[in-house]
Amino acid sequence: MTTEFRERARRALGRDRVRANIRRAMDGLVLKRLAAFPDREELERLRDQGQAIRDHALAHLPDLLEQLEARCSANGMRVHWAEDAAEANAIILGIVQSHGAGAVLKGKSMVSEEIGLNAHLLRHGIEPIETDLGELIIQLAGEEPSHIVAPAVHKDRREIAELFRVHYPQESCGEDIERLTALARRVMRERFHDTRVGLSGVNFAVAETGTLCLIENEGNGRMSTTAPDVHIAVTGIEKVIARLEHLAPLLTLLTRSATGQPVTTYVNMISGPRRTGGDGPDERDGPREVHLVLLDNGRSGIHADPELRATLRCIRCGACMNHCPVYTRIGGHGYGTVYPGPLGAILEPQLQGLHRRGELAQASSLCGACAEVCPVRIPIPRLLNRLRYEHAQGRSAPAVGDASPTAVSAGAPPPATGPSARSRDRAPPRRARMRVALQAGIWRLWAQVHASPARYRRLTSLAARLHRLADIVIARTAVPWTRTRTPPRLAAESLHALARREGYCDE
Amino acid sequence: MSDARTAILERLRASGGAAAGAQLEPKPEPGSGPTVPVRRFDRSHPQLVERFCGMLEAVRGEVYPVGADWPAVLARLLGESGVETLRYGPDGPFGAALADGWPASESTPALVPHLGPVEDCRDALFAETDAGFTGCLAGVAETGSLVLWPSPAEPRLLSLVPPVHCVLLDSARIVPTLHGLMADEQWHRAMPTNALLITGPSKSADIEQTLAYGVHGPARLIVLLAHGDNLIAPA
Ligand code: SF4
Description:
Chain A has helices at residues 4-14, 16-36, 40-59, 61-74, 85-98, 110-114, 117-123, 133-141, 157-167, 177-194, 220-226, 247-259, 299-303, 319-322, 325-330, 341-352, 354-357, 369-373, 380-392, 405-409, 419-422, 430-451, 453-465, 467-477, 479-482, 495-501; strands spanning 78-82, 103-106, 127-130, 197-200, 204-206, 211-216, 230-236, 240-241, 266-270, 289-295. By secondary structure, chain A is of the alpha/beta class. Chain B is an alpha/beta fold.
């Protein structure tokens, strides 16, 4: 039963060097986060605030988006709305072409990955220039980011040095990290000087003031949003927050959860293009145009479901992946999606549909580490269970983004409780259906056995009596498990029986 | 694209009441939202200054306590590290004081006024400037951050493009938290086109989680910490 995800995971598990790189980095990030929150009570207080702020924003999303649009426009920005990736790409391409630009400076933006912007620009003869060091590395390697915060985390310095040697043969800098970084600075400098259009993501969009908040350490984000004549910011519609002061707790949570930093080197708050021709003296730099592209791409569908809506609270800190035993082993590329890790496992099946990515909900041991660290308390395991359930019900829901928006806006009320109505869909392939039915059957059996103490006792004592036979059955049937592990062996006596014999009460 | 706008908003409106969060707040008032208690520290001013310096130095910011002769101190610091040109905004809050106090000698870096729109000085800014000087609005003790509101006199790129960024900070302007500063000074009433927090020189850990300083922004951040308003009264 090899599916695309399983196959990817298997391949990822075989790449020892990548695994070692990721493991080392994740261990480091876990420790850094821990050190950044020395006060447990304060952390929980901040998480409460973070959750409340994000919940509020989602509860008032349409109003806040309108307010954001009004304030941004009043500040001189231009606001665009995009239903899906194709629309967003078309809007961005249109802006770039209207300025006759042949290249675009790119600050780090996961939404631009989500919409496949680089490929779209290239198809139209426009060069996307990734300016973040990690993004530059994977662009040179022709790969996808393997982590939402540290995109090149799967590569070590030797590989990076080799990449740089191939792409910049005239420069030599060996494997020294300082020198590799200095090389990136040299090659980017000219591009910052020359390029006329810059593009970035957005960490938070403040409705109250029409402010786009971006955080970063390298200065490439400031360069991309300040040096060119035109700045295009692209973001999901869920990134809006109501008030400026909400930034304070969210920034604290975000940077400390992500990298353990109390604050990033730069916090860049943009509330409009260069101001000229007003009352005061003219501003002398900054972009002359700032565009904000608001992307739905399935988010409004997630918003419609009261439980799954929590997915949209995410502030993209990456802590869930840093702490995830599955991510740590298979890395971002093991998932095959733009957003990996526990976040990806809940988000991608919803964005792309259970029929395409439903299996990702299985990419978890449900250990709960992700929910424990999530700064906005997204109950990731619960949402995974919900998605597994829907997947198992054979409700291969269409990508919420695919759900014809016109049908909804034409008057059909969107589903009150999401799943059932979201899930009308073509039948999944027969084998998958059978597997799902088998799974459901096993779990039903499991539930029945565990629902009655007498039944449970009868079954365990039977299994204990037949333990030799049971061992063979386990070894034969649990092959995916035993391929890389020693098969478990049943004891000749159940724990309950043992306890009873020793005189303990086993109730 | 207004079709997309209408459709997205309609879908969101249709699902608006479905969330648990919405029941807590029956009336949508976009401007409001949860009131978050303002984060502050109850510390004495010397403690705040100490915290500020400690946090900034922990990320390789350089802090130098200075007196009225700060322009000379800066000139010496820069001269020693081979800086040849320092750009500054003559109309900035400390522009005149900097020019007045700038020592005239062979070994001091040249003081270059940063004037005109960036279109006229882009080459010089990128290629011929070793250091940039700006004032700042405040310092944040909690994180060791400088708060800058770039202005026509000291525009955005002056603190970004030159490899060394020098800042004069009045220690009386060190506040406990960003949150407190935003609330006390009512930022939400009028934001500048660009507001910045700068905490140390630019850096990256994208290669093996190892910090390397001086990526695309300045490689050095020099903070001149002035004590006492009289020393640095705006010209
Ligand atoms: S789901 Fe939570 S922990 Fe994961 S990236 Fe989003 S905010 Fe961070």
